[in-house]
Write a structure and sequence with these properties.
The complex is a heterodimer of chains A (202) and B (298). Chain A contains six helices and ten strands. Chain A has 202 residues and is an alpha/beta fold. In chain A, strands 1-9-8-5-4-2-3 form a seven-stranded mixed beta sheet. A three-stranded antiparallel beta sheet of chain A has the order 7-6-10, with no helix packed on it. Chain B starts with 12 loop residues before the first helix and ends with a helix. Classes of the chains: A alpha/beta (202), B alpha/beta (298). The interface between A and B is large, with 40 and 42 residues.
């Protein structure tokens, strides 16, 4: 059993670290495919990457139900750490979650298990935060859409292998849809629902 | 310096998190108005409470802030907001468009082209473009959901039927990313083309109406029009009287009580920059000649 005192600390400077993390995520969301860096934090619980932990401290609170996948949920440390530092309720029902933390992309549930928003309120959707292997190497993709001047190139190695194919549903659903944030250690790439992705092979 | 009794940039952290989440959704759904729990700010509604909250949520210590009101850096509203953030966040402020990383604006887009490292924050009084056509929020929300914008075209058509042309001169409705019709805030329609494919991120905050919306960089923004009545940006017949600019938005300044008037750039930074670079208009003011003399004497 880990006691609260043994949990990894949060931000050293709550205010300024949250601000710089948010600006990285905002820039990532505004320029899909661009790799943004998050100022690393000293310690993170278990299976949680530094980027994921920083995003959690920046965006989660009592207003945001969180859904954890099996990999994240199996660690008591992650749950305790989230509860202590953010106060966000961890929910079992993924369809009411504001954010979903995905530690093992291979076991990502079908996207319609998450909140997709409604036509009147498309903002009431789940944002997926998926931890991936790399955002610097791997398969190559071409991205188009708002925020991108022409075409953006992305190199990424991730599971599930067919994530971007699955995200095609955003095209038909729009303005409903799923926004995705990919995290590899301290690197962050966002794929908002407006982004269209073409695989260029490996 | 930070005023010690306030958190950095005035707002508390929980409020910032709430606003930040709204901003991320707004960017992901271009032109859609995201409801947010707008706070009371130490200024009255109508003075930029929405823009101030958005700015407070994104501002960091390394940012350089510029605030304009109708294009001017030196009006009460602009100066007060600039001082507010200099005091509560300790950020550097500027009046030069190209030095700023965050620009908060009321009713204008700077004449100087924006770049990728900048964020433009608009103060918005009434975010709903359909509000004067349909007062019920439940109805306008459904119209946005169904992309049912016929009513807006009828309004523009009625302009043509009555005046022979589309008479809407400010808050001219735009369609963002071929989906949502959006109110660009009461900017003159002269500025509408600058929103299209803009390299900078554009954020809109409406404090009283509690909405945040956004246009991501490089996003298509089309001013609504008809094939036989295409959108026409406002044209001026004369150049700026101070700097001679022929392609900027002009303000009318009454100069006496006998009906004399002059037309000068509404963007003060742009106008001063051009005058400093040696451009002259028909009524170039004395201070620049005096300054030039001081330089040559000194």
């Amino acid at each position: 059993m880990t006691t609260i005192a043994e949990l990894p600390p949060g931000f050293a400077d709550k205010v300024l670290s949250a601000q710089s993390t948010f600006r990285s995520v905002m820039d990532a969301m505004a320029r899909p495919g661009s790799v943004q860096r998050i100022v690393p934090m000293p310690g993170t619980p278990d299976t949680m990457m530094r980027g994921t932990a920083a995003i959690a401290l920046t965006l989660f609170d009592h207003d945001t139900p969180i859904w954890l996948d099996a990999r994240m949920a199996e660690s008591a440390d992650v749950t305790k750490w989230l509860k202590f530092h953010t106060g966000a309720p961890v929910v079992q029902d993924s369809s009411i979650a504001s954010f979903a933390l995905i530690g093992d992309g291979g076991a990502l549930p079908a996207l319609d298990r998450f909140a997709l928003g409604t036509s009147e309120y498309p903002d009431r959707s789940t944002t997926l935060i998926i931890q991936v292997d790399s955002l610097a190497s791997g398969r190559s993709f071409e991205l188009r859409g708002p925020g991108i001047d022409g075409v953006a190139a992305l190199l990424a190695s991730f599971k599930p292998f067919d994530l971007f194919e699955r995200l095609h549903v955003n095209e038909a659903l729009f303005p409903r849809g799923i926004d995705v944030v990919l995290v590899a250690d301290d690197a962050v790439v966002a794929i908002p629902r407006t982004t269209r992705i073409v695989s260029k092979g490996s | 310096m930070n005023a010690p009794t306030y958190n950095f940039a005035y707002l508390d952290e929980q409020t910032k998190r709430m606003i930040r989440r709204a901003i991320l959704k707004a960017i992901a759904i271009p032109g859609y108005q995201v409801p947010f729990a707008s706070r009371e700010m130490p200024m009255p509604y109508g003075w930029g409470t929405g823009g101030v909250q958005v700015t407070a949520a994104i501002l960091g210590p390394a940012d350089v802030l510029k605030v304009i009101d109708q294009g001017s850096d030196d009006t009460t509203n602009a100066i007060s907001i600039r001082k507010f953030f200099a005091k509560t966040a300790g950020v550097a402020t500027t009046t030069a468009t190209d030095e700023a990383t965050v620009i908060q604006t009321r009713h204008r887009i700077p004449e100087t082209a924006l770049n990728e490292s900048q964020v433009l924050v608009y103060q918005v009084p009434i975010p709903e473009p359909l509000r004067f056509l349909e007062p019920r929020e439940t109805e306008t929300r459904r119209m946005h959901a169904l992309a049912e914008y016929g009513l807006m075209h009828v309004k523009l058509y009625e302009d043509i039927a009555r005046f022979g042309h589309i008479a809407t001169a400010y808050a001219y409705p735009v369609k963002v990313n071929a989906r949502y019709v959006m109110d660009p805030s009461p900017t003159p329609k002269f500025d509408n083309p600058k929103m299209d494919n803009c390299p900078a991120l554009q954020l809109f905050g409406a404090g009283r109406e509690k909405r945040i919306y956004a246009i991501p960089p490089y996003t298509q923004v089309v001013s609504l029009d008809f094939e036989d009545h295409p959108f026409e940006p406002y044209r001026f017949n004369a150049p700026c009287a101070l700097c001679g600019a022929e392609n900027s938005y002009l303000d009318e300044i009454v100069t006496d009580d006998k009906g004399s008037r002059m037309f000068v750039c509404s963007d003060t930074d742009y106008c001063e920059g051009r005058q400093a670079a040696g451009h002259h208009g028909s009524l170039s003011a004395a201070p620049y000649k005096e300054k030039a003399q001081e330089v040559s004497n000194g």
